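User: Some background: our group keeps a shared notebook of sequences we're curious about, and every so often someone picks one and asks for a predicted structure to add to the entry. Today it's my turn. The entry only has the sequence so far, pasted here. Could you supply the structure so I can complete it?
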Amino acid sequence: MTVKIVTDSVSDLPPEIAEELGITVVPLYVHFGNESYRDRIDLTPEEFYHRLEHSKTLPTTAAPSPGSFAEAYDRLAEETGEILVITLGFGATHGSAVKGIELMEGKCRVEVVNSRKAVMAQGLMVIAAAKVANAGANLDEVVDITHRNIQRVDFRATFDTLEYLRRGGRIGAAQALLGSMLKVNPIITVRDGEVRPAGRVRSRAKAIDYLYKFATSYSHIEEMAIEDATTREEAETLAERLSSKFPKECIYRSKASPVIGTHTGPGLLVVSVLGDR
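Assistant: Of course. Here's the predicted structure to add to the notebook entry:
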């Protein structure tokens, strides 16, 4: 039986890719006051960013419950005896995924791996795991490949302000960038489950140049993804620039999920790479 892959919605997987590869996505939650929405299910990215820009209520986020993961495991246990779960690199989501195993009613071996990343950096790990699983690898082999890919995947993200990260309590070591300049375009990444500063520049154009140089610094690229929140034209232009390094038609394009947007705001632009430097 084929190993089944489970992830959370912060992986920002394009829905058509998840469906094609048979990946199960467990949604996190976005709250606007007393209203609760399942990430990407009850609230699309487009709906979310429109509301974020026009609402006086700032959203908050929450991890899936252990029961949500258990339900997903039980559904998949009817099809397979082996499941790999690749979860968000920080917050409560990983713990929920682990606790969900205890709540299962079905019999199935489940392994949970902390991606130590987020956005499509996590998504690229999930895609790679699904591809080898669908090619016939067993659970131990898929787990081994996933652990190796943790060291091979990275991302850089830029956005207009660190204020959303600060308010959401996710700013981590990037706190050092706050107040450093009156007008700064921060560049961040995630290392060992913590948001960390990767650079800072004085204009949006220079921030996009930074993302370009990050991607082209790889000697070998296995997979690449570009995602945005509300700046599709910038993302398309960046994909065109990077086509000299990696075929544009092979670059995954994604929208940042409402959960991610809650902590970054609408100006997010991200490049994720799975490869070798």
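Suggested note for the entry: The chain has a mean pLDDT of 91. The chain is about 40% helix and 25% strand.
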